[in-house]
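Morning. Coffee machine broken again, so started the prediction first thing and wrote up yesterday's gels while waiting. Chain of 253 residues, entered below exactly as on the submission form.
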Amino acid sequence: MLERTFVHIPGVGPQTERRLWERGIAGWREALAAHAPAPGFSPSRWQVLRSYAADSLASLERADHCYFSQVLPACYHWRAWSAFRDRTAYVDIETDGGFGRNAITVVGIYDGRRVRSYVRGENLNEAAEELERYALLVTFNGATFDLPFLRRAFPAVDWRHMHIDLRYALRQLGYSGGLKQVEKALGLVREEAIRGLAGDDAIWLWQEYRRGSQEALELLLQYNAADIENLERLLEWAFPRLCELAGSCRGNG
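Came back before lunch.
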């Protein structure tokens, strides 16, 4: 889908992009191979499009996620998922209920293969180095919650990731509400031990852990791991439907 994207080019919106697809300009390579401007494009405007297409193709070939994080509007970052899936992290944090830079209690990071948990007082600072490894971060409500906390906690991280906030991506498909509500609507069922737990419970579990309950920490980490593992499942479900909604049936790439 990323190679078919033109909405990052000045003057090209979703409707113009669809018209390009309909007229056989299916992606950047087709635009560069065209011998004449597409209908509706002046020679100068077409040259701008071709210049962006060339830069975009070169950036993709060298896996330069920073280019796309800068030029691609945030609401379209989901289009980069299949191209950067091997450098995608599903991220969720827990806090103690505060709002300062030291409020984070747990950072969970899932790369599609392994869950890594970073806990305050143990290894929390190691999360910064782990986050640097990725091109694309996936969260639920992370634009207003997780990422602001993480930026305050780890200001030295280069925060030029692309970011998919599934809260807004799923809203485009008619699914609103919190993560657990969306999971339920789509038939995702959590393990019995953590079924029904929510953000307030995560704060309480941290408090119990601080009072000496190792079992509370284990349950908190299980809860956090379910959050990030389900983010991948939700994105796998949403991605082809977002492609279809955009007017492109060719979701790969």
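The chain has two domains: 2-62, 85-242. Going to sketch it on the whiteboard this afternoon.
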